[in-house]
Structure formats: structure tokens, C-alpha cells
């Protein structure tokens, strides 16, 4: 299975184009079946949530409803000009709201699980780095009895940013001097 990593814009384009093409195929081959379009939307929603890159995870649940609406005009059959087509589109959105909510929920759940796993992995990496730093400090012999090690905290650990003392106030800068615009002469 391919493992692409889509940006937020790429995820939106993938979803929108996929749903438009699938809606066209649905109309040509199956006579505009709303149930088939909904099932395909669930599949596209899941794929976009899996394929979006880590930095753009929040974009997947946002773009999938837009993509649902991108393919819907091909399935909504309206009569009587622009007003009739708009009414058919609004009616189709209202009638297919379950599929829309379901696909958005699928993308949201997948993205949430991916984000939680990413946060857990980063926490484990930070803990591993702290362990390595402690072991390195013990090997060098910098850890003293009573917690008076290099980091200042018990056990020689460096203090987390919240426990560090704030730096004193900086000396004020001298005022800026205006440039001379008239040549001396």
C-alpha cells in the first residue's frame, strides 16, 4: 500500500478531486447512487486522514466535508435552471448528512489517534534522552551526593523550563540615533 504524506493543501486537493471523479463514475455507472457515494466518501475520508503528514493533521477533518460537497453537484438532479440546481444541491446535502458526519467522524478519530501516538512517542523520546543524559553524567562522575549535580536538581537532572529561574532584566538599549540625510560640507 502506498505511503504518501500529503500537506494540508494536498489533502484537500486529493479529497476534492477524488470525490468529484468518484461522483462522476457513480453517475455514469450506477445512476447516481447516494449510498455508493457515501461509502466511497468514508473510504476517501479514511485515506486522507491516514495520508496527511504529521504537521497538518488538523486539516484532514476540515477538508473532507468540503470534498463531499465538491462531488455532490454531479449527483444532485435539479430542474429549472440555476435555482433548481441549487435547491437540489441543498436537498442532497440535507439528505446525505449522515454520510457527511460519518466521514468527518472517521477522519477525526483517525487523526486524533495519530496525534495521541505522536505525542506519546515524543514523550518517550524525551524521557530516553533524559535517561541517556543521566547515565552520561554518572559515567563522567559529575553527580554528587545530595542532588548537587550539574543540573541543580535532585539526581543530576536538568531542570525543566518551568523550574528555571527567570533571567534578570536586560540593560536598556540606547536610543536609536537618526541618520543624517544632508551631506556634510
UniProtKB/TrEMBL annotation:
Q: Does the keyword RNA-binding apply?
A: no
- Entry-linked InterPro entries: DUF6542
Every copy of the DUF6542 domain together lies at: 5-118
Segment Disordered: which positions? 139-185
UniProtKB keywords? Membrane, Transmembrane, Transmembrane helix
Name the residue ranges with Gly residues bias.
144-155
Superkingdom in the source lineage: Bacteria
* Residues passing through the membrane, by range: 33-52, 57-76, 88-113
Q: Does the keyword rRNA-binding apply?
A: no
Indicate what this protein is called per its UniProt record: DUF6542 domain-containing protein
Species lineage, top-down? Bacteria, Bacillati, Actinomycetota, Actinomycetes, Kitasatosporales
Amino acid at each position: 500500500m502506498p505511503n504518501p504524506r500529503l500537506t494540508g493543501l494536498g489533502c484537500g486537493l486529493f479529497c476534492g478531486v477524488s470525490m468529484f471523479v468518484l461522483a462522476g463514475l457513480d453517475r455514469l455507472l450506477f445512476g447516481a447512487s447516494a449510498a455508493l457515494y457515501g461509502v466511497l466518501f468514508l473510504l476517501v475520508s479514511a485515506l486522507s486522514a491516514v495520508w496527511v503528514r504529521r504537521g497538518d493533521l488538523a486539516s484532514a477533518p476540515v477538508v473532507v466535508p468540503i470534498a463531499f460537497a465538491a462531488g455532490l453537484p454531479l449527483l444532485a438532479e435539479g430542474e429549472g435552471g440555476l435555482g433548481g440546481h441549487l435547491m437540489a444541491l441543498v436537498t442532497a446535502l440535507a439528505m446525505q448528512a449522515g454520510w457527511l458526519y460519518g466521514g468527518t467522524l472517521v477522519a477525526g478519530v483517525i487523526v486524533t489517534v495519530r496525534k495521541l501516538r505522536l505525542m506519546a512517542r515524543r514523550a518517550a523520546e524525551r524521557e530516553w534522552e533524559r535517561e541517556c543524559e543521566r547515565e552520561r553524567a554518572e559515567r563522567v562522575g559529575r553527580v554528587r551526593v545530595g542532588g548537587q549535580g550539574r543540573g541543580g536538581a535532585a539526581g543530576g537532572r536538568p531542570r525543566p523550563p518551568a523550574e528555571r529561574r527567570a533571567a534578570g532584566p536586560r540593560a536598556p538599549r540606547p536610543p536609536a540615533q537618526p541618520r543624517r540625510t544632508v551631506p556634510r560640507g
